[in-house]
Structure to design on (188 residues):
């Protein structure tokens, strides 16, 4: 793991972030810098997010306590980019002050969007096109020792952040209650 010295005044301008976004083909034209700033809630976090996308799969980048941290990629983190829906869920988890999750965690050959391995709790977020009910049931059956919370959107727009945002309080409440319950069960 290494810390990167960053000139925050330079790299957090919207122009610089826009240039970084243009270099990421998966996101180009799909999301704006303004939307990334809204989701990441700070220019520093937006910079870390975009840098992470640019360096994957060769390195992972995090923003912690005012520092950019770069480390070798984990074998368990295999996704090369986050969908807008995953970004929103990440923000929900941060709002709840939950940081002990793994992103794109592999269990028994299945990938879980967000996983709390100690609690055997997973959060899946996406569009029904990516998460057809039949496939989700198969995953749930194979991972019967895990509790999977499904937050799929069903709008015509495959990446509909609005639908997820409208359910923000309900989703946060569900996650909080489930973590509390899983923690209580582990203590018994």
């Amino acid at each position: 793991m290494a810390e990167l010295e960053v000139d925050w005044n330079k790299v957090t301008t919207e122009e610089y972030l826009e240039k970084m976004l243009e270099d990421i083909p998966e996101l180009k034209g799909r999301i704006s810098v303004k939307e990334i700033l809204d989701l990441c809630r700070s220019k520093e976090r937006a910079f870390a997010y975009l840098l992470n996308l640019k360096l994957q799969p060769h390195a992972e980048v995090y923003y912690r306590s005012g520092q950019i941290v770069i480390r070798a990629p984990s074998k368990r983190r295999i996704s090369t980019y986050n969908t807008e829906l995953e970004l929103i869920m990440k923000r929900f988890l941060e709002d709840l002050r939950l940081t002990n999750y793994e992103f794109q965690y592999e269990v028994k050959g299945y990938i879980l969007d967000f996983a709390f391995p100690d609690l055997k709790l997973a959060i899946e977020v996406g569009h029904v096109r990516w998460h057809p009910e039949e496939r989700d049931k198969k995953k749930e059956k194979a991972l019967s020792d895990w509790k999977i919370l499904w937050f799929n959107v069903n709008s015509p727009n495959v990446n509909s952040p609005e639908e997820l945002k409208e359910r923000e309080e309900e989703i946060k409440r569900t996650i909080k209650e489930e973590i509390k319950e899983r923690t209580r069960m582990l203590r018994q």
About this structure: The domain at 76-188 is CATH 3.40.960.10 (Endonuclease; Chain A).
